[in-house]
Fold:
Amino acid sequence: VQLVESGGGLVQPGGSLRLSCSASGFIFSDYAMDWVRQAPGKGLEYVSGISGDGGGTSCADSVKGRFTISRDNSNNTLSLQMSSLRADDTAVYYCVRGPYSNYDYWGQGTLVTVSS
Amino acid sequence: QSVLTQPPSVSAAPGQKVTISCSGSSSNIENKYVSWYQQLPGTAPKLLIYENNRRPSGIPDRFSGSKSGTSATLGITGLQTGDEADYYCGTWDSSLSVVVFGGGTKLTVL
Structure:
Protein backbone atom coordinates (compact mmCIF):
# COMPACT_ATOMS: atom_id res chain seq x y z
CA VAL A 1 0.00 0.00 0.00
CA GLN A 2 1.30 3.39 -0.92
CA LEU A 3 -0.23 6.86 -0.62
CA VAL A 4 1.63 9.74 -2.24
CA GLU A 5 0.43 13.31 -1.82
CA SER A 6 1.28 16.19 -4.10
CA GLY A 7 0.21 19.75 -4.75
CA GLY A 8 1.34 21.50 -1.60
CA GLY A 9 3.22 24.77 -1.62
CA LEU A 10 3.14 28.44 -0.76
CA VAL A 11 -0.08 30.32 -1.46
CA GLN A 12 -1.30 33.78 -0.56
CA PRO A 13 -4.24 34.31 1.81
CA GLY A 14 -7.46 34.05 -0.13
CA GLY A 15 -5.85 31.84 -2.75
CA SER A 16 -6.60 28.31 -3.89
CA LEU A 17 -4.72 25.05 -4.07
CA ARG A 18 -5.56 21.50 -5.12
CA LEU A 19 -3.99 18.56 -3.33
CA SER A 20 -3.85 15.11 -4.84
CA CYS A 21 -3.14 11.70 -3.40
CA SER A 22 -2.15 8.82 -5.64
CA ALA A 23 -3.00 5.43 -4.15
CA SER A 24 -1.60 2.03 -5.06
CA GLY A 25 -1.36 -1.48 -3.67
CA PHE A 26 -5.00 -1.97 -2.76
CA ILE A 27 -8.47 -1.80 -4.28
CA PHE A 28 -8.98 1.93 -3.96
CA SER A 29 -12.75 1.91 -4.34
CA ASP A 30 -13.12 -0.48 -1.41
CA TYR A 31 -11.96 2.11 1.10
CA ALA A 32 -13.11 5.41 2.51
CA MET A 33 -10.35 7.99 2.31
CA ASP A 34 -9.74 11.04 4.45
CA TRP A 35 -7.52 14.09 4.70
CA VAL A 36 -5.95 14.86 8.08
CA ARG A 37 -3.77 17.90 8.72
CA GLN A 38 -1.22 18.95 11.28
CA ALA A 39 -0.26 22.56 11.81
CA PRO A 40 3.39 23.20 12.73
CA GLY A 41 4.00 22.02 16.27
CA LYS A 42 0.34 21.13 16.76
CA GLY A 43 -1.82 18.02 16.93
CA LEU A 44 -3.81 16.12 14.35
CA GLU A 45 -6.98 17.60 12.86
CA TYR A 46 -9.52 15.84 10.67
CA VAL A 47 -10.21 17.81 7.50
CA SER A 48 -12.52 15.83 5.27
CA GLY A 49 -13.53 12.32 4.28
CA ILE A 50 -15.19 10.50 1.40
CA SER A 51 -16.77 7.06 1.09
CA GLY A 52 -15.41 4.39 -1.20
CA ASP A 53 -17.92 5.06 -3.96
CA GLY A 54 -17.68 8.81 -3.52
CA GLY A 55 -21.34 9.10 -2.60
CA GLY A 56 -20.80 10.31 0.94
CA THR A 57 -18.57 13.08 2.24
CA SER A 58 -17.94 14.89 5.49
CA CYS A 59 -15.78 17.78 6.54
CA ALA A 60 -14.74 19.73 9.57
CA ASP A 61 -16.57 22.95 10.36
CA SER A 62 -13.28 24.82 10.03
CA VAL A 63 -13.13 24.10 6.28
CA LYS A 64 -16.81 23.77 5.39
CA GLY A 65 -17.69 25.80 2.34
CA ARG A 66 -14.04 26.30 1.43
CA PHE A 67 -12.64 22.78 0.88
CA THR A 68 -14.09 20.06 -1.35
CA ILE A 69 -13.02 16.45 -1.29
CA SER A 70 -13.39 14.19 -4.31
CA ARG A 71 -12.05 10.94 -5.70
CA ASP A 72 -11.48 9.29 -9.05
CA ASN A 73 -11.70 5.54 -8.58
CA SER A 74 -10.70 4.87 -12.17
CA ASN A 75 -7.35 6.56 -11.54
CA ASN A 76 -6.96 5.71 -7.83
CA THR A 77 -6.73 9.36 -6.92
CA LEU A 78 -8.03 11.35 -3.98
CA SER A 79 -8.22 15.14 -4.22
CA LEU A 80 -8.79 18.11 -1.96
CA GLN A 81 -9.73 21.41 -3.58
CA MET A 82 -8.95 24.23 -1.17
CA SER A 83 -10.11 27.80 -1.66
CA SER A 84 -10.28 31.02 0.38
CA LEU A 85 -7.18 29.83 2.16
CA ARG A 86 -6.27 31.41 5.49
CA ALA A 87 -3.10 31.52 7.55
CA ASP A 88 -4.54 28.95 9.96
CA ASP A 89 -4.82 26.44 7.10
CA THR A 90 -1.03 26.22 7.11
CA ALA A 91 -0.23 22.60 7.87
CA VAL A 92 1.07 19.31 6.62
CA TYR A 93 -1.82 17.57 4.90
CA TYR A 94 -1.92 13.78 5.09
CA CYS A 95 -3.89 11.45 2.86
CA VAL A 96 -5.10 8.51 4.96
CA ARG A 97 -6.95 5.26 4.32
CA GLY A 98 -10.05 4.86 6.47
CA PRO A 99 -12.71 4.25 7.47
CA TYR A 100 -13.53 6.42 10.46
CA SER A 101 -10.44 6.70 12.67
CA ASN A 102 -8.97 3.33 11.62
CA TYR A 103 -6.26 5.03 9.62
CA ASP A 104 -4.01 2.11 8.80
CA TYR A 105 -2.01 3.82 6.06
CA TRP A 106 -0.78 7.39 5.84
CA GLY A 107 0.96 9.27 3.09
CA GLN A 108 4.18 11.17 3.76
CA GLY A 109 2.28 14.45 3.85
CA THR A 110 2.42 17.61 1.77
CA LEU A 111 3.06 21.04 3.29
CA VAL A 112 0.67 23.88 2.58
CA THR A 113 1.86 27.32 3.65
CA VAL A 114 -0.55 30.23 3.49
CA SER A 115 1.34 33.48 3.72
CA SER A 116 1.79 36.77 1.93
CA GLN B 1 -9.16 22.74 22.35
CA SER B 2 -9.56 19.13 21.30
CA VAL B 3 -12.79 17.15 21.66
CA LEU B 4 -10.83 14.32 23.27
CA THR B 5 -8.65 15.12 26.28
CA GLN B 6 -5.17 13.67 26.74
CA PRO B 7 -2.43 14.62 29.21
CA PRO B 8 0.16 16.81 27.48
CA SER B 9 3.05 14.69 28.64
CA VAL B 10 4.00 11.52 30.49
CA SER B 11 7.36 10.09 31.40
CA ALA B 12 8.84 6.91 32.76
CA ALA B 13 12.14 5.08 32.94
CA PRO B 14 13.29 2.45 30.44
CA GLY B 15 11.74 -0.92 31.14
CA GLN B 16 8.85 0.56 33.06
CA LYS B 17 5.18 0.81 32.13
CA VAL B 18 3.20 3.92 31.24
CA THR B 19 -0.43 4.62 30.51
CA ILE B 20 -1.93 7.45 28.48
CA SER B 21 -5.54 8.39 29.01
CA CYS B 22 -8.05 9.74 26.52
CA SER B 23 -11.29 11.21 27.79
CA GLY B 24 -14.34 11.88 25.67
CA SER B 25 -18.11 11.66 25.84
CA SER B 26 -21.15 9.59 24.93
CA SER B 27 -21.08 10.91 21.36
CA ASN B 28 -17.61 9.59 20.70
CA ILE B 29 -15.59 7.23 22.89
CA GLU B 30 -18.48 5.64 24.77
CA ASN B 31 -20.18 4.35 21.64
CA LYS B 32 -17.44 4.23 19.02
CA TYR B 33 -14.20 2.40 18.48
CA VAL B 34 -11.01 4.15 19.57
CA SER B 35 -7.70 4.16 17.72
CA TRP B 36 -4.25 5.13 18.92
CA TYR B 37 -1.38 6.54 16.86
CA GLN B 38 2.33 6.97 17.44
CA GLN B 39 4.14 9.83 15.76
CA LEU B 40 7.90 9.76 15.87
CA PRO B 41 9.65 13.10 15.28
CA GLY B 42 9.47 14.20 11.66
CA THR B 43 7.35 11.28 10.49
CA ALA B 44 3.72 10.55 9.70
CA PRO B 45 1.61 8.99 12.44
CA LYS B 46 1.41 5.22 12.62
CA LEU B 47 -1.58 3.16 13.73
CA LEU B 48 -0.85 1.37 17.01
CA ILE B 49 -4.28 0.26 18.20
CA TYR B 50 -7.63 0.06 16.44
CA GLU B 51 -11.11 -0.98 17.55
CA ASN B 52 -10.18 -0.16 21.16
CA ASN B 53 -7.70 -2.97 21.73
CA ARG B 54 -6.61 -4.60 18.48
CA ARG B 55 -3.05 -4.32 17.19
CA PRO B 56 -2.18 -4.18 13.50
CA SER B 57 0.32 -6.77 12.35
CA GLY B 58 3.84 -5.76 13.27
CA ILE B 59 2.88 -3.83 16.40
CA PRO B 60 4.47 -5.52 19.43
CA ASP B 61 2.29 -6.70 22.30
CA ARG B 62 4.02 -4.17 24.56
CA PHE B 63 1.31 -1.84 23.26
CA SER B 64 -2.25 -2.37 24.49
CA GLY B 65 -5.52 -0.52 24.44
CA SER B 66 -8.61 -0.54 26.62
CA LYS B 67 -11.83 1.38 26.97
CA SER B 68 -14.31 1.96 29.75
CA GLY B 69 -17.28 4.27 29.43
CA THR B 70 -16.19 7.60 28.02
CA SER B 71 -12.46 7.00 28.48
CA ALA B 72 -9.81 4.98 26.72
CA THR B 73 -6.29 4.09 27.74
CA LEU B 74 -3.11 3.21 25.89
CA GLY B 75 -0.63 1.10 27.81
CA ILE B 76 3.02 0.62 26.95
CA THR B 77 5.16 -1.87 28.84
CA GLY B 78 8.90 -2.48 28.72
CA LEU B 79 9.56 1.11 27.69
CA GLN B 80 12.38 1.73 25.25
CA THR B 81 14.06 4.96 24.25
CA GLY B 82 12.67 4.39 20.76
CA ASP B 83 9.16 4.76 22.18
CA GLU B 84 9.74 8.47 22.70
CA ALA B 85 7.08 10.03 20.51
CA ASP B 86 3.76 11.82 20.45
CA TYR B 87 0.71 9.63 20.95
CA TYR B 88 -2.80 10.48 19.76
CA CYS B 89 -6.18 8.92 20.35
CA GLY B 90 -8.92 9.22 17.77
CA THR B 91 -12.49 8.16 17.16
CA TRP B 92 -15.67 9.08 15.30
CA ASP B 93 -17.98 11.62 16.87
CA SER B 94 -21.60 10.92 16.02
CA SER B 95 -22.79 14.40 16.98
CA LEU B 96 -20.19 16.26 14.94
CA SER B 97 -20.08 13.61 12.18
CA VAL B 98 -16.31 13.88 11.94
CA VAL B 99 -13.27 12.07 13.27
CA VAL B 100 -11.97 13.68 16.44
CA PHE B 101 -8.52 13.44 17.97
CA GLY B 102 -6.97 14.07 21.32
CA GLY B 103 -4.46 16.88 21.62
CA GLY B 104 -1.60 14.41 21.82
CA THR B 105 0.67 13.19 24.61
CA LYS B 106 4.43 13.48 24.48
CA LEU B 107 6.11 10.43 25.96
CA THR B 108 9.58 10.89 27.42
CA VAL B 109 11.60 7.82 28.36
CA LEU B 110 13.99 9.09 30.99
Remarks:
- Chain A has a mean pLDDT of 96.
- Residues 32 and 51 of chain A are 4 Å apart (CA to CA).
- The interface with chain B takes residues 34, 36, 43-46, 49, 58-61, 94, 100-104, 106-109 of chain A (CB under 8 Å).
